[in-house]
Amino acid sequence: MRLSRYFLPVLKETPADAQIVSHRYMLRAGMIKQASAGIYSWLPLGYKVLKRIEQIVHEEQQKAGHIPMLMPTLQSADLWRESGRYDDYGQEMLRITDRHDRDMLYGPTNEELITDIFRSYVRSYKDLPLTLYHIQWKFRDEIRPRFGVMRGREFLMKDGYNFDLTKEDALHAYNRHLVSYLRTYERMGLQAIPMRADGGPIGGDYTHEFLVLAETGESEVFYDSEITDLTFGDREVDFDNVEQCQAVLEEFTSRYARTDETHDEALFNEIPEDRRRVARGIEVGQIFYFGTKYSEAMGANVQTAEGTQVPVHMGSHGIGVSRLLGAIIEASHDDKGIIWPEGVTPFHVGIVNLRQGDDETDAACEALYASFKALGLDPLYDDRDERAGGKFATMDLIGLPWRITVGPRGLKNGVVELTSRRTGESEEMPPEEAVKRIAAIYEGV
């Protein structure tokens, strides 16, 4: 993309109502615009990152054997009355009456709707196990929406639902999701710690939240510092292998890590003092096992091999797709702007032309741009007739992980400058070498 033809409404000043880093930088970088309290329009740059995050979630869900679908944003209140949650959910639920006086709601989650789908089509144990998921907009009428996309009213969420014959099978689905989520977050450049949590209005005896450590986190968290040394890395996991998934779960959950809702001071004090940590965390996902809570209430039964009817065991699993964008910025920024990890960056590399209109410099930039496009990479070429300082400030603010600077002085020596946004280190090299270096970085990302 050529920046002269892109819509990137960057701001020089920080909006007064932006309280945390991610909100400030998302507004300044022209990623979002507030439409009303807690509701945002996603402008082109923000939308690109949102779609990259969404794609990673899709890929990792399907690697784990989960099947994508799409459910509506509006749901019938009758389903929620059937499960018993319509009156219990509280004022966060946006309740609507249509022109025929039917009670509707803007879905905050989808346990009832997916259970209704399941009971309409699945009759036999032979159709299990089954995990369905979708990525869809949700609405929760927060009393005080704040912090931009971190605590908005409308948000994009992946929610998945497993259906299993037995508790043992359902707990394997739980473990499978935990492994899948660890892979998902690491691909986004995040370390998200699974922490013992409270089931809240969804319910369930087994639940873990995934939290990213950040000073601006809403939750107080307590953990053993050894857990921050764990990485999923390049390990290959067979998601059908019960023992393998269980081993990963035990590795990542055996050390103490809890939110303030489930914190146990006595257990925490058993950890050596030098490893005890108290910090703030941003929730970016949660997994639940809640057994037959919904299937019993809504008649979601299957026939067993012995011919008896039993309610299926269920769990649900959410990832805050739009919230992740803010969490990544909170975890990866400096005083100049955002620093995107390679896995989610809106553009793979920025090209800065230091002397727009100079024939040799223009030609070198065009050649770089064409080379990246030919490799299937997505460059952002700053071809504006602007001062060099303004171009560098824009690149730093929007946070592309790599920048190639092209100017007459370097071209006389046959080189361009490749700069890492994260470290600030620069290296001069021939243009062809810079292209190869960037291509190698993104191979397999």
Tell me the count of domains.
Answer: 2
Average pLDDT, rounded to a whole number, is: 95
Instruction: Write the CATH architecture name of the largest domain.
Output: 2-Layer Sandwich
Span between N and C termini?
20 Å
The CATH C-level name of the largest domain is: Alpha Beta
Low-confidence stretches: none
Described by strand count, sense and barrel closure, the largest sheet is: 9 strands, mixed
| CATH level-four homologous superfamily name of the largest domain | Bira Bifunctional Protein, Domain 2
Q: What is the fold named in CATH at topology level of the largest domain? A: BirA Bifunctional Protein, domain 2
Oligomerization category of the chains in this entry:
single chain
Outline type: globular
% residues in beta strands: 25-35%
Specify the structural class.
alpha+beta
> Can you count the beta strands?
23
Q: Estimate the helix proportion, in percent.
A: 25-40%
Computed CA radius of gyration, to the nearest angstrom: 24 Å
In short:
The protein is α+β, with helices and mostly antiparallel strands and 445 residues long. Helix content is 33%, strand content 27%.
